[in-house]
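INTERNAL TRANSFER SHEET
From: sequence group
To: structure group
Subject: AcrR family transcriptional regulator

Please process the attached sequence and return the structure record in the designated field. Keep the field labels unchanged so the import script can parse them.
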Amino acid sequence: MTWHEGAPAQAHGGLPDKRRAILAGARTVFAHGGYTRASVETIAAEAGVSTRTIYNHFHGKLPLFQAVITESTAEVADAQVALIDTHLREVTDLEADLIELGQALATPMTGHAKHFAEHFALVRHLLADTEHLPQDTIDAWRKAGPERVIAALAGHLQRLVDRGLLHIPDPHQAAAQFIMLLVHGVAPFHHGLGITREADIHEIVTSGVRTFLHGYLPA
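Return from structure group:
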């Protein structure tokens, strides 16, 4: 099944609040157990609707998962791009501004925001279930989420290069490296393997930013 074929069906006489309840319930179920372990029956129970109602709004579990990951990815990417724009629009202290950006991007990953926590749990399960999902589902997530955020960050890095504040041959690659430094550093907290103290996150982000700048500050 292709991404287009797996797209969510239009509601047939159903109310928007029912569709919202289905998507919210499905996000919780998929975030908890992943795509392969989830069932339409469990999602229906979580959403407080019948399985027939789910099939009236979506063709089955796969298009429902695709709708959930599409919506969740767009919402989180919107928030992350907004953070990047806010913190890098007017850079006055390069290291401090990058640390503030890193802190802002990393904080939702610690689980303080339920929706962000569910989204990153969804992504972990999506990557674990790649052999059970169509490749275009994975590709669509990458394009709507990571690639969009990296492109936004790369644009700001290029402007810093133009100002002579950084020396970066490939801003897109550098943006991906910046994100990966944050992801690898904060991942243990996100997975519940560490103490999610603000000071710990700040220390991890500061170390990552300084590593990044060590490679890209002008000689």
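Handover comment: The two ends are 52 Å apart (CA to CA). The longest helix spans residues 61-88.
Transfer complete.
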